[in-house]
Specification:
Chain A: GO terms for molecular function: DNA binding; guanyl-nucleotide exchange factor activity; small GTPase binding; zinc ion binding. The complex is a heterodimer of chains A (732) and B (229). Chain A is mainly alpha-helical and 732 residues long. Among the domains of chain A are: 60 residues, Up-down Bundle (Single alpha-helices involved in coiled-coils or other helix-helix interfaces), CATH 1.20.5; 160 residues, VPS9 domain (Glutathione S-transferase Yfyf (Class Pi), Chain A, domain 2, Up-down Bundle); 260 residues, no CATH class. Chain A contains 36 helices and no strands. Chain B has one domain: Rossmann fold (3-Layer(aba) Sandwich), CATH 3.40.50. The chains are: A mainly alpha (732), B alpha/beta (229).
Amino acid sequence: MIPVVVKISKMPSLRIDQSDLKCKNGCDYFGNPQWQGYCSKCHREQMQRQRKAEKASSATLPKPETKKPDRGLKITSHSSFSKFEEKRHRQSETLKKANLLKFSVFKKSSTDDHEHSSEKRPPEFKIPPQVNEGMKRDFRMRFPQLAQSRSKEPSLAVDRDCRAFVNSFIMDVIKCTNVMTVDELSERVQRQYQRFMKHMDTSAHFSHVDADTKELLMDFVEKHAMTYLHELPSIVFSPNGTEDERLDRAMSERIQQLSWVGERHLECRLDMNHAECRQLLYKAISELLGMDSALSPGDKLARVRRCCRHVLRLCSSSAPASADDLLPALIFTVLKANPPRLVSNINFVTRFCNAQRLMTGEGGYYFTNLCCAVSFIENLTAESLNMEKKEFDCYMAMPASIGGSAWAAALSLCGAAREADEQRALAHKLRAHTRTIHERADLLAANAKSFEEQIAKKVEDVLAKTPLEIKPRRELPRIGKFKEISTAPLIDLGTSHAHGEPEPPPETKPEPQPEPTVPQEPNITIQASENEPKLNILGFEVIERQSPSKSPQNLDQTWDLKQTSSLELLTPSPLGFTPFDSRSIDELMTPDDFGADQLPPGLSNINYDIDLSDFSGDNSIAEDAPKSDPKDPFSPEALKKTFDPFAPQTSRGYEALDSFDEFSFVDQRKQETDPFEVVHRGQDPFSPVDIAKDPFFSPPKQSTSILDDNDSPTSGCLLPSPMQPQSSGKPT
Amino acid sequence: MKVIEAKIVVLGSQGVGKTSLVVRYIGKMFSKHISPTIGASFFTCNINLENARVKLQVWDTAGQERFRSMAPMYYRNANAALLVFDITSVNSFAAIKGWVKELQSNVPEAMVLSVVGNKSDLEDLRAVQSSEAAQFAASIGAQYCETSALHDQQGIDQVFLNTAAALLKLSSSNLVSSLRSYDSADVDSTKIPTGTPTEEDATHTGKVELPAWSIDSIAHGDVQKNMCC
């Protein structure tokens, strides 16, 4: 534990040492942070020196703002291949703007610093919180293994240490920037890097971090510190007191002048007519141009590395490229690219990149090559191109826009080709996309179709099932009642059973045949729809005339049933017939006048309910038969029977309609003219009675029959049974 | 396990076979896939010695005469130099002498030098006697090897191996600050990176065939201002 604590306390940025409190100049007085760590005397001296230096530098160097525009103009005026030029111009333009903005802000604060520092320290330069936030985020992204997998404490410490270092680093650089020359600053920065490296090696926080990760952390720290500093004008990038800007311009002009230098002068094997070669060169040039927009030295190095890899591929058509090939090709690339602020960028990297990285590694190697290329271009003579002095001078005297037009054309062609490629790739992508969309659409359509089919099939299945449920009911009752009906009317008509029986089946048979396929639904719906309107129509009429609310409905229903010619409704209604009882009771009130025959059953209904449940099995047959018998003889026997059974049984067309018309009219007339109730009751009760009596006695039968209906085969057996008694009753 | 990181620069006139030497060496290492993007101009390799690992960064240089003035940028901070000449060309051997002088005057820190006579397969055309070359090498404290990029894999391996061993020695003498050495945590010798020159134990070969090394074999230069772009 103790060594750990000691190590932590040794961390420079987190603790103030005794020595730190002394004047930085090394005189024995104590320093003061207000005086930048000097004692008052040394600080004054320092300030004077600084002001002098500043005056001198501002005198020798023209203001950057005034310098830049003419450079931009020159570039555009001489531009030979427009695309790069445009990019270059844009970059310098945006940067200039940023520079102007920040420059004024920052410059102001720093001058304030000088003027008022004696009485008060102006608001401390604050590092915007975005830097810290960005670091946190980036740290988590780049070192997930550090941020997550390890136990929380050390990883947090690593993160914190990095941020603390970056903060102190930035502050230190900004503090020193006015006091130090660039070389001193560079040295200081390098020492900072080393300090952090040492810190990583010694601190307990980094004990679990392996060497490779430390390198990455170093890069990480460098990147964030330098990215921020790079954006501040004239601090680290083409700083005050250097000739970077002037050299930039000089280099740019020089490169333009040398635009006539071709591949054969440099003895590099480049084939302008080869498309791939042009592409690679184009890529290399883009990377090189991108170097200016990268902010940290590490990123700039990465750009250079990518550029050089393209160049390497460019010259390694047959054998792996060696340095003998690389350097000329790179020189050529630089000449064709004419990257913006090349010298500033190179100086920035050499000064402020972690030296360890710059001296070693692939990036370092390529960067060295770039430096060589630049230095070669700077010192280019006739001799270095292996040509006559005269010829060289001749070339150099030539306007810059003429030379190298072939390559410029080739490259702009390349740019266009590249754009075309991109467009084509995009088109391909779009086409593929549309294809997939089409496929999906087809799939969707197929799905929809199959779904539809499935649904249709299901519906069919359901229909195929449900008809089986419904029809047997219809058919069987029909058959049964047909038998009754057929027999009854036939009997009435005087025809024999033999005729009656054969006739109805043909009638019944044709119905089921069409029904199962489609018309069942229609049937049902029609019935339902017919029911409702008729209910309404009739209901109005009936209600108007008749006082009892329920009875008319019953009547209507019965009417409907008759009209619609469906037995279904008849059968269901009896099943849910409990209301019917009450109605029958209501009816009983009215039927009092009507018939004695029905009264007893109506009255008995109430009492019987309970009793009959016991009886039902036995008595039903006995009672049904007698009751059916009396009904038949009753005046409308045939009619009634035609009512109930006919409507459903026979197709709606014939008898139902006939019967309906006749009877409805008749009924209505009766209702209108006569005390309808009597007649109606007389009719209704019959059917109700049939139903009512049947239900009371027969519901068990019917219910059984219905229950059995579900099991289609048995229904055939069971259903006839209720008929049989009737039929049997009739014959008997 | 001790790990040394060193930068080694390959110098020599154009056409002496620097590249083919390097390609031959890399080619063996990356026999399966020699990526054109890596090229032969820069590569890193790990050489495992008895008790240490040497991470070599090999920087090839352009041999053309017109790039001669740029050489300081390449050999700055280098820890070792391979001076390659063509045994059929006296001029290339003379150029080596020039390189040595330049190195000695420009590089402040101790450096491992190796003189390599390339194209030993062209014995018939030999223009530089091996005794002469060896004598010169001894005079500058370098070792001398003759190699052939065509046939002689052994010699090329030997060159790099010797250099690695010398670097190890150099690092232990603590004379050189730019030579980065540290103790690596991963002692696991099975986890040798692909750059290992010989798959079958570099250790014993390195041990057996090492020539005797003294501090004399390390060149010292006078301190002069470094050129820089």
